[in-house]
Q: What sequence folds into this?
């Protein structure tokens, strides 16, 4: 790499500049939303990137209405339940795919790959009608079900990639000591697999937290509308006023978990996203 | 599909499977009971996931084919009636539908191409940088993780005539009220959000490029560009194809950004947007389902073409797998 030339210090400076470009690229829209959320109503129209006058009013506003709090509860509840179920089912399936020989394995991998590529909008029409008939429309389970479905391929891929890295001799040892495959799974492998499971849970949670299409199509009231969907129903203090401040404040709130995940689990997320890809 | 039928029975049998699993681990003769137990456990573990995936996608797709053959408008439910392919004729002769198809294709191609270029650059930066590698990776994950709608609102207000710090850039006060500027902004929003994901997938491929090979190439006098095209790209080909496949199919279903930025005004709507409008706003289940089926077919064709490409690159894929 010395061919690239320059002294070490010179190269470091050049890389630092490149890094700063990346930082600016990634952070500008986030900072802009943050800035808007602290602007006053008069401040929106000054078009400056940073607020000239700071206020917490927008945050007070959203937390004083039921609309946002309810949506936040829905978002958190639905995302957590869907994540838990998807990860449990995904772990079971991924273990079987990574470790066991059984007919139909390729078919399952094929089906989940298909679903990963599936156009979600194709499901919106039939699910809308089916959920209305089943009484699932505008309920938590009505959103949890499609979330699990689309999270499962992601979970199965990521997890089976992780499971292939586990030292399976331990499983053999356990079996030699008389454990059944099921016991070997529960007692030996599950604890070893926890980091992978945890990473997958983060990725699945981000996916559920992010969804907008199902959230806006399969809900109609506050009872199950999640924050991304609720944002587009925010109204300003008067009808003619766009709710810039409250939307931005709500946007900042739902970005916090993402920022925390990224800050604390960067390595895991990168490993999770790339592990499946290398396998192809 | 045949798999479906066999799973419930496997589940039924499994109550005994735990008992015989212990002893027969000694030899590998034939389909021992251990093998059978392994099979049953495999099915048992996969059954719930397979069941959910098929129940929530397989069945609704069949159902939507059925719905697409009906006249079914929720505002006039008593007029529901089997109309054969009428809905398909209605959609396929509709100028708005073809506009949406054109816009979706355009947005997909343009944004995926830009993402590939920027993603490759970002992947090289994340892979190579001498300073702050962790920081760069952490920050790059923010666009990936952020809720698409949140980012979309950020772009909306950035270009908005009243609030935006960027709105003068196109020489017009309200770029989101005109088609071409709107499309550019939609592409920008898409590219910003998904480039890091592309970069991560490509970085996985970059990790497979042996450093020795690069050093050898540069000793032989290869320029940086030659090293990139002659050494890196061939090794990375499988990763590039995977990234392209995922992103193309993902871009084709673009919805969130358009919904927030323009709501499909001024001919900026995608096929997903059209389907949503017909279904949720128009409450026309027949037409909405027809569009659903058409999008499904379009995606299947794209996937098929890509998988053909994959097939062609299979030897490269094996090489990559071996590391």
A:
């Amino acid at each position: 790499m010395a061919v690239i030339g320059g002294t070490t210090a010179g190269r470091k400076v050049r890389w630092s500049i490149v890094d700063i470009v990346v930082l600016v690229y990634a952070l500008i829209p986030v900072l802009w939303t943050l800035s808007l959320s602290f602007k006053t109503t008069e401040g929106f129209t000054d078009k400056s990137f940073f607020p000239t006058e700071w206020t917490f009013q927008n945050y007070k506003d959203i937390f004083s209405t039921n609309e946002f709090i309810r949506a936040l509860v829905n978002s958190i509840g639905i995302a957590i339940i869907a994540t838990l179920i998807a990860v449990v089912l995904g772990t079971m399936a991924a273990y079987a795919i990574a470790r066991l020989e059984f007919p139909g394995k390729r078919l399952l991998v094929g089906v989940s790959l298909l679903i990963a590529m599936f156009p979600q909008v194709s499901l919106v029409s039939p699910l809308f009608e089916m959920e209305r008939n089943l009484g699932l429309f505008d309920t938590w389970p009505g959103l949890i079900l499609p979330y699990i479905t689309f999270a499962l391929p992601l979970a199965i891929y990521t997890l089976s990639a992780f499971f292939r890295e586990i030292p399976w001799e331990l499983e053999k040892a356990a079996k030699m000591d008389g454990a059944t495959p099921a016991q070997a799974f529960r007692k030996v492998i599950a604890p070893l697999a926890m980091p992978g499971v945890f990473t997958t849970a983060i990725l699945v949670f981000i996916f559920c937290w992010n969804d907008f299409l199902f959230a806006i199509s399969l809900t109609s009231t506050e009872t199950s509308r999640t924050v991304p969907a609720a944002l587009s129903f925010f109204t300003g203090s008067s009808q003619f006023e766009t709710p810039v401040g409250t939307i931005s404040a709500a946007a900042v709130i739902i970005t916090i978990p993402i920022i925390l995940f990224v800050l604390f689990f960067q390595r895991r997320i990168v490993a999770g996203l790339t592990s499946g890809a290398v396998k192809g | 599909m045949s798999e479906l039928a066999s799973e419930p029975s496997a589940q039924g049998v499994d109550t005994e499977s735990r008992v015989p699993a212990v002893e027969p681990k000694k030899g590998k003769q034939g389909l021992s009971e251990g093998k059978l137990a392994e099979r049953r456990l495999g099915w048992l573990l996969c059954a719930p996931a397979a069941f959910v995936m098929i129940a929530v996608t397989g069945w609704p797709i069949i159902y939507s084919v059925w719905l697409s053959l009906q006249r079914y408008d929720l505002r006039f439910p008593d007029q529901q009636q089997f109309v054969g392919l009428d809905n398909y004729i209605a959609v396929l002769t509709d100028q708005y539908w073809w506009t949406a198809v054109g816009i979706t294709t355009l947005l997909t191609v343009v944004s995926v191409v830009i993402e590939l270029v920027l993603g490759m650059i970002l992947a090289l930066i994340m892979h190579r940088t001498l300073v702050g590698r962790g920081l760069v990776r952490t920050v790059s994950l923010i666009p990936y993780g952020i809720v698409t709608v949140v980012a979309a609102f950020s772009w909306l207000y950035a270009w908005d005539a009243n609030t935006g710090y960027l709105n003068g850039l196109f020489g017009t006060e309200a770029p989101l009220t005109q088609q071409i500027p709107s499309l550019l902004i939609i592409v920008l929003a898409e590219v910003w959000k998904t480039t890091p994901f592309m970069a991560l997938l490509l970085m996985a491929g970059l990790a497979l490029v042996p450093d020795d090979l690069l050093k050898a190439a540069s000793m032989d006098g290869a320029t940086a560009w030659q090293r990139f095209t002659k050494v890196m790209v061939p090794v990375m080909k499988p990763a590039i194809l995977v990234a392209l496949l995922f992103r193309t199919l993902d871009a084709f279903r673009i919805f969130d950004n358009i919904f927030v930025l323009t709501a499909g005004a001024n001919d900026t709507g995608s096929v997903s947007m059209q389907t949503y409008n017909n279904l949720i706003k128009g409450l026309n289940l027949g037409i909405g389902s027809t569009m659903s089926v058409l999008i499904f077919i379009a995606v299947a064709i794209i996937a098929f073409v890509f998988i053909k490409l994959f097939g062609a690159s299979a030897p490269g894929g094996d090489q990559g797998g071996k590391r």
User: Anything to note?
Assistant: DSSP finds 13 helices and two strands in chain B.
